[in-house]
Amino acid sequence: MTDQTDANWAAENPGVETVYAAVCDLNGAFRGKRVPASAVGKVQSGGLRMPLSVAAVDIWGEDIEGSELVFETGDADGICEATGRGILPMPWADKPTVMMPLWLAEEDGAPFLGDPRRALADVVVRYAARNLTPVVATELEFYLVDLATGTPLPPRSPVTGKRLDSDGVLSLDELEHFSGFLNGVYDACKAQGIQADAAIAENGAGQFEINMMHVNDPLRAADDAALFKKLVRGVARKHGFAATFMAKPYGNRAGSGFHVHFSLLDEHGVNVFDNGGEEGSSALLNGVAGLLATMAQNTLTFAPHENSYRRLMPGAHAPSAVAWGYENRTAAIRIPGGSTKARRIEHRVAGADANPYLVLASVLGGALIGIERDMQPAPAISGDAYSMDLPQLPMDWSAAIAAFETGELVTEIYSGRLQQMLAGCKRQEYTRFKRQVTDFEYHSYLETV
Predict the structure, then answer these.
(1) What is the pLDDT of residues 6-58, one digit of tens each?
(2) Which of 12, 49, 303, 392 has the fewest Cβ atoms within 10 Å of its own Cβ atom?
(3) pLDDT the model gives residue 67
């Protein structure tokens, strides 16, 4: 479906009764309103309003204590503007339903700098000023789970009825057995204009990965990832499963990552990372250096939740060190092989639980800092990064919050408002998690210590 502001839209689409008008918050969750189909024209033309604070609520949807967006400003409304993505069908819904992606603006029409999509848009504008266009592809991993017992279990095969109990990496049988679900995902992607590519059974019971095609619009790439996460959960429910993008839903199985591949085209459409050789151009090395310099400060955008740090552990098939290498999946930054014309950078730090807009803003923003400053990276590593003495990412949530809140390079990517909002949001969530006592703690300590 394409953008339509015509008030006759409802008449032209008589089967659609429900429209979800939604903005994306800091946690990557869509929040908004359900409106009748007759209101499509109003929403598309900017007639819908929501509190600006909706972008900054915590994971439970609660206001951030002490936020200036709430009491100091009277919890003022902002303007909801259409992102240009259009009106998107939700084929997994019970009745014909559509969704309208929006982003927030101030009362005077200025972009609301606390909107995560605006943060990425600002980075894209900076690339355009240098006549550079990022070409981006994403890879998202997720688990299908059975929640019948209240805690996640691997799903049962729709073909055999048996519960998955092994890490069937690249299993064709699993792809075939869950083809009904996967077909539903691809159909929903097609309906929403998401260019989904290959699907694989990943390294976990019920874990899958679906890759997206490269696009020369980072905002569209982030839109695709955010919309993809929502549609996967919807399609899974329709097929009798649940789907989770938690970074580490099982302590003893592989985590779920969100890998980003990108290259840069100049005004002539030439890949500036390609110098004809395997090592890549000076621009590629500059970009790598910028990513390494900003990685620790931006870890909170790659690993935004308590559960995220169960994935970022040495030896857990996720990067824990600030390092890079050629064709090395133990490093945080990998330079894939293949044709030099497709020379690109792969950023492997983010978990699937991260906000796609913030992930791409941090990745592209970090690389741009390296290019602008002509930074040079440390030597590429070869071999097992986990066994080397290398600078480490923040290994816990609290340290990542502090690094983002005080990071000098963070302010070269994000507005002061978003930096403050995200740090405040995560500190509130951290405090609440630390007040919870788990069943495992009772089991270990209650009558022992």
Answers:
(1) 456 777 778 888 899 999 999 999 999 999 888 888 888 889 999 999 999 99
(2) 12
(3) 79
Domain with residues 9-112, CATH architecture: Roll (3.10)
pLDDT for residue 164:
85
Distances (CA, A) of 300 to 42, 44, 61, 295: 37, 33, 19, 9
Q: In CATH terms, are 9-112 and 123-439 the same topology?
A: no
Element containing residue 30 per DSSP (H, E): strand 30-36
DSSP per position, 185-218: HHHHHHHTT--EEEEEE-SSTTEEEEEE--BS-H
What topology is assigned to 123-439 in CATH?
Answer: Creatine Kinase; Chain A, domain 2 (3.30.590)
Q: Where are the beta strands (DSSP E) in 52-91?
A: 77-82, 88-89
Per-residue confidence (pLDDT) for residue 71, from 0 to 100:
60
As a whole-number percent, the residues of the chain with pLDDT over 90 amount to 78
Amino acid at 364: L
**291's tokens:** 């990513």
The secondary structure element, H or E, covering residue 175 is helix 172-177
Q: Is 317 exposed, middle or buried (0-12, 13-18, 19+ CB in 10 A)?
A: middle
- Alpha helices in 312-353, H assignment, sequence order: none
Give the pLDDT band of residue 173 (cuts 50, 70, 90). confident
Are 306 and 397 contacting, i.e. CB atoms less than 8 angstroms apart?
yes
Per-residue buried b or exposed e for 171-188, using 16+ beta carbons within 10 Å of the residue's own CB: eeebeebbeebbebbeeb
pTM of the entire predicted model: 0.95
CB 285 within 8 A of CB 380: no
- Are the C-beta atoms of residues 324 and 292 closer than 8 Å to each other? yes
Domain ranges for the chain, please list them: 9-112, 123-439
Task: State the Cα–Cα distance between residues 255 and 259, nearest whole angstrom.
Answer: 12
